[in-house]
Structures are given as structure tokens and as C-alpha cells.
Amino acid sequence: MDTEAIVLDCSDHGEADIIVTLFCRDVGRLTAIAKSAKKSQKRFVNKLEPFSFLNISYNRKNNRNLAFLAEADLLASFINIRQDLELYALASIIDEFLLLGISEGEPDEKTFRLTLWALHSLDRKDQPRAILALFLIRYFDYLGYRPDLDICRACQTPVTPERRYTFHPGGGRILCSACSGDAGTRGRELSHGTLKILKAAQDCPLARLHRLKLAGPVLSEALALLHHYGRTIFQREINSWKTMQKYIGG
Ligand SMILES: [Zn+2]
Fold it and tell me: How many Å lie between the centroid of ligand 1 and the Cα of residue 163?
């Protein structure tokens, strides 16, 4: 079988083999073994690295979990991501969220295209932290966790500049200042600027997503909110996020 695939994870297996976790266009998540990959330089050299975008041939016997990787052609290696600590840290967060969210046997064309968009954008060094925020708001949506940013969930009033809002990651909902009361202290304050750009990011066509600009306090607020929401959705820490904070701040 042939498909396009993004490498999410690789680990050595024995003396010569490499096991790779892939996000495949046709089957979603796939774990494959590349036999003798460490010896056969010609077939796999520099290809089985995190974030590589490949065209692969694989076969699978009797629906076993582990597929055999026969060949891989490099479509994009994202060389800048590999060479820049911040870009690498941001791509690692995307990678970790994908490993948590995508499933075997479930192709997801929208998420696949979004991931390619994010990797290409990071590689161009075009507002890298904003790319992470834009990726996450769409990714959570595709997984079925689209935050409703249009109305207050309690009074159903459409968002208005006259009220203040808090975000409640438990249900991905917002509450206006009139409704949140004391509960507001448990939510995360959300400025109108952040609310507006996240709403725009939810519905903008992918081809125009890069035109949304996030910077300064709006970007910090959006990232903090999405980090918190991601931890709530998956009920665990996001290790690569901690790594980013530790080494490059933010
Ligand atoms: Zn309300």
C-alpha cells in the first residue's frame, strides 16, 4: 500500500531496525517497522525523523498491529524546524497532541491537511507561536471539542463588547460576567481581542489561516487557554509544553 505520511515518533529496535509511528493520509495512525533501517542507508537515511513528510509503501500481514515499511520517499524534511530550538519545541507540541488524539484505522483528511499546513508554516518561521495557537483551536474542533465562543452558555446571549467573559475548559464554554458570578473565579478571563481571533480561526478557510495575526498579550492569552483546554481534554500534562517553557520560556 502507498500513502503520504508524517513521522510522529521513531525508536530504535534491536541492532538494525527502527520502529516508526506515522500519521498516514489513508489510515490515520500507523506503527511500522523499518527492517535494517540503520544499515540500509540508501532506503531510509534522513527520512525516518520526527516531522518528516514522506511517501511510503508498507504492507501489513493479517491485520497485525505492526506494519512493515518497505520504502519511503522524502516529500519535505522541514530543515528549519530541525535546526531551530523554538520551532522544534513548537512542532513537538503539535506532535504530542497528534499522538494523543489520532487513532489507528481512522483517516482524518482535515487534521492531516492542518498538520501539513502547520509544519510548512513553522518551517517558514512565520509567527511560529501563533501557528501553534491556530493549529490547536482547529485541531480540538476536528476532534469534537469545538469551544462555543459565540454565546454565553448560561444566558444564551451573543457575545457583546459590553460584557466580560471567562472560558471554562470543562465544557469548552464561555460565561458572561452577568452569569459567571463567583464561578468566574474558576474560569479563565478572556479578552475580546482573543475571543475574536479564536472565533475567526475556527471558521477561516485553511488557505487563509496564516493571515490571522496573533501577537503580544492576545497570543499569550490564547496559548495559555489552549494549553489549559488541551490538558482538560486529554486529562494529562503535555510534556513537550513543559519542555518549551523550561528551555525557551512562554
Ligand atoms: Zn450570560
Answer: 9
